[in-house]
Amino acid sequence: MKRPDFNIVFVGAGNVASCLAPALMQKGCRIVQVYSRTQESAQTLARKADCPYTTDLTQISGEADLYIVSVKDDALDDVTARLACSGNPDALYAHTAGSMPMDVWKGKIRRYGVLYPMQTFSKQRAVDFSAVPFFIEANSEEDACLLKEVAGRVSPKIYEASSEQRRYLHIAAVFACNFTNHMYTLCDRLLAAHGLPFESMLPLIDETARKIHELPPLEAQTGPARRNDRNVIGRHLDILKKEAPELADLYGMISRSIHTYELNNKMTSR
Amino acid sequence: MKRPDFNIVFVGAGNVASCLAPALMQKGCRIVQVYSRTQESAQTLARKADCPYTTDLTQISGEADLYIVSVKDDALDDVTARLACSGNPDALYAHTAGSMPMDVWKGKIRRYGVLYPMQTFSKQRAVDFSAVPFFIEANSEEDACLLKEVAGRVSPKIYEASSEQRRYLHIAAVFACNFTNHMYTLCDRLLAAHGLPFESMLPLIDETARKIHELPPLEAQTGPARRNDRNVIGRHLDILKKEAPELADLYGMISRSIHTYELNNKMTSR
Prior knowledge:
Chains A, B: It comes from Bacteroides gallinaceum. Chain A contains 10 helices and 8 strands.
């Protein structure tokens, strides 16, 4: 086994840290300490990462050469400011937030950057990091290399991205992941209301995701909105208005958007 | 090889027929003829299914024991009426439309039903039918069995479903497949506008689909709308309003819906 050559403190014990810390540990990094506001989260992750924990930012270890901060975006400004006062002043500091600029560190600490793993993380599920793209940014080339090396321990897909590019990546990821998952949730709710098993949808969901490995999503589209099949759309809307009016609004708006893209596509491909 | 014991005419040569006809042929069914309004579609499918074609419904073959109708829902009423006049009056007739009732056949022909393969079909892509659930309905038990036998040739997942259940299945499938695919399209558009490759999203998209094999979609949800992270949501909306106002509306509506589901879930799980 490789000698541990990164000593890392994880600040935050949410979904990202809960997946990333054990993965880095398995690749020979030493997790020095974890911090979380709540004892329960801190303890759970500390157990996974086999390290001490704290719930007090002033008690953060000064023994690390890398501090990885994964907290709610709303808390990032405050946490980074307080962390900079208690952590090792010579170490490298990185946050993992898709839509927060690197400059959130500016003026607080000397060496800093971003390490954004573009994936959906849940504590209940281990993620295969070898398929997770990491987007890296740092305030020096040397530290960008260091962050690439750390991320490279768990994934072969390492890219550099500016704060602006990362912001668009994050918005796009919200559509591709969170909004997609919400479509699954709405599907689940509709089926459950009629005694139909969500399981029966999985082949369709899988094929929908597989298809776009081969076809651009605009070409892969099917269904009543693409065909502008107004009878079907009208019947679906009538049903939804009766039993779930909030779904009728979403159905209408997304169907119109599909149809608009289809029309624009036909016009430009003429 | 098994002796062909189903003689089938395909009426319509769209995405469903283009995938289903060759699959049934490979499992020993004989495709007697295909019909399409347009010569090009008819010819293409006839080549795939190694059979003659027609573009004239009055010239439909009387030699089949099963007629499978896959046409736009809007055209189904008219096509079934005209088909009933020229096809074999003793044969079984089935349509493949998710949201059309079985009764579209009533009064037109003696033996009829529905054979609904719940999948997204594109002509450009071969589908693995062994993972496609088929939902069957017929106006006699005997013919329901026959349709199950036909569908059973290509898939092990055969269910009976009433016209009402199928209607809900179809709405749910629109959310799980068409609307999901539209989220991919919007993601693609955002990335393309900023020189970022759609390919980099595929691991995230795949994991989002895989995750719900293990977790209910409501639990699998992540991201700013679930966390109700108003700073992120606000920044995303500001950016979208500037460069794609129609996406800002969708972003706002879907985010609100995610947050509502999250709140309801917290309340009920208290």
